[in-house]
Amino acid sequence: MFSAHSSRQSADRLDQMAFLTLSGVSYAYTTNGQARVGSDLPNLAFAADVSAPTSNRHFRWDAVEGLTTADTSSIAAADTPSWKMLVELKALAEESFVKPIRMDGGVSVYNVFMTPTALSVLKQDTDFLANIRNSAPRSNDNVLFKGSDSYYVDGLAIHSYRHVYNTRRATTKWGSDHNVDGCRILLCGAQALGFADIGMPEWTEKGFDYDNRQGIAYGKILGFKKPKFASLESGTTEDFGVICVDVAQ
């Protein structure tokens, strides 16, 4: 039988690998940019399948120019997420034939993931606040009053999650002087990530030194891979269902 702690730890590692795969970041790093020490994640068979975002699926946000060519060294402290960024990002996804998720009632939605810090900055953007206020009921049911971690507006489901890749613990930050903390926002449509989940996990305990020392082995057959197909818009092979946008936070 698996303990609640082991289940939570396993789920946490799966979440980390999923977001690193979507972001195109090696398992040799944690989702906050720190190098892993003593971890077997970089040695997994599918760790070599993690690939950088393709050219037409990777951008950075420039507070003046808008969405532009990805380059973490060009990010400035002012290049934080905003309502304007979300509007441009959705338009880009639609024009790039990134397939949205079809919800009940025929509504199409893209999931947008960012760190809690990035969302806290977005919630201070006046245009974003105005749209949330006007799209939600004027009552205690308004998500702004509830302190929700998810916001639904203009066909975007905006979520904050701690395992979105960021540079909070990274040795080298972003920006020309390597002193800007940032995060890699993910817009995910349908089939953004492939996940193989085969069989139940195995947990084995064994005693050593007359049971004075316990050894525990945990095993699970699984794998992650980011689907890639020829883009109808560019004619090049691109990540199928995810767009990455680097921002300051």
State the low-pLDDT regions, or none. Answer: 1-5
**From the 3D coordinates, which CATH architecture of the domain at 53-192 and 227-249 would you assign?**
2-Layer Sandwich
- What value does the average pLDDT take? 91
Topology, number of strands: 12
Spatial shape: globular
Structural class by helix and strand composition: alpha+beta
How would you describe what is shown here?
This protein has about 250 residues and is α+β, with helices and mostly antiparallel strands. The protein has a domain at about 55-190 and about 225-249: capsid protein of prophage fold, CATH 3.30.1930. It is built from five helices and twelve strands. The protein has helices at about 5-25, 85-95, 115-120, 125-135, 145, and strands at about 60, 65-70, 100, 110-115, 150-155, 155-160, 180-190, 195-210, 215-225, 230, 235-240, 240-249. The strands form three sheets. Strands 1, 2, 3, 4, 5, 6, 7 and 12 form an eight-stranded mixed sheet that branches. A two-stranded antiparallel ribbon has the order 8-9. β1 (about 60) and β2 (about 65-70) form a beta hairpin. The longest helix has 20 residues, at about 5-25. The protein starts with a helix and ends with a strand.
